[in-house]
Design a protein that fits this description.
The chain is an alpha+beta fold. Helices cover about 50% and strands about 15% of the residues. It has 5 helices and 3 strands, in the order αβαααββα. Helix 2 packs antiparallel against helix 3, helix 2 packs across helix 4 and helix 3 packs across helix 4.
C-alpha cells in the first residue's frame, strides 16, 4: 500500500534524485524549455515552482530577505549562474503571475523504449501561446471617409 507516500522516487536513491532535479531545473532556467519524460517533468514542476516563488518574493522584499532567499535557492540548485538568471530575468517576467510558472506538454512516446515524453517550459517565455492574446490599445480612432464633402 502507498499510504502517505507523495514523492515519486523515479527509480533513484535520494542523492541521485536531488542532483538530477537540480540539473534539470538549471537546464530549464537556462533554456526556458526542455524535453524529458512525463514522470520527470511532473517531479520537476513540484521541485521548481516553490523555488521560482522564492525568487519572486526576493525582488519585493528588503536586502536581508533577498539574500536569505538567494541562499535558500542556491542550496537547491547549486549553480550560481542559474540562480543569477532566475533572480534577474525569470523573477521579473513572472512577477505578476500568482503561480503556475511551468507548463507540461505531452509529446508522445519515445522510439527506443516507448516512454511517455513531455516538454516542460516556463509559461511566460512561450510566444506561441501569448500571440493569441490581444493587447490593449490605448485609443481607437476612426478613419475619415474617403469621399470628400462638397459645400454648397
Amino acid at each position: 500500500m502507498r499510504h502517505g507516500k507523495k514523492v515519486n522516487h523515479l527509480g533513484r536513491k535520494t542523492a541521485h534524485r536531488k542532483a538530477m532535479l537540480a540539473n534539470m531545473a538549471c537546464s530549464l532556467i537556462e533554456h526556458k524549455r526542455i524535453n524529458t519524460t512525463v514522470a520527470k517533468a511532473k517531479a520537476l514542476k513540484v521541485f521548481l515552482e516553490p523555488i521560482i516563488t522564492k525568487s519572486k518574493a526576493a525582488n519585493n522584499q528588503s536586502v536581508d530577505k533577498g539574500t536569505h532567499n538567494r541562499r535558500i535557492v542556491f542550496k537547491y540548485l547549486r549553480d550560481k549562474y542559474a540562480v543569477t538568471e532566475l533572480f534577474s530575468t525569470v523573477a521579473d517576467k513572472v512577477a505578476d503571475r500568482p503561480g503556475g510558472y511551468t507548463r507540461i506538454i505531452k509529446l508522445g512516446n519515445r522510439l527506443g523504449d516507448n516512454a511517455d515524453m513531455a516538454m516542460i517550459e516556463l509559461v511566460d517565455y512561450n510566444e506561441t501561446y501569448d500571440a493569441g492574446k490581444k493587447k490593449k490599445s490605448s485609443t481607437r480612432r476612426r478613419k475619415k471617409s474617403a469621399i470628400p464633402k462638397v459645400d454648397n
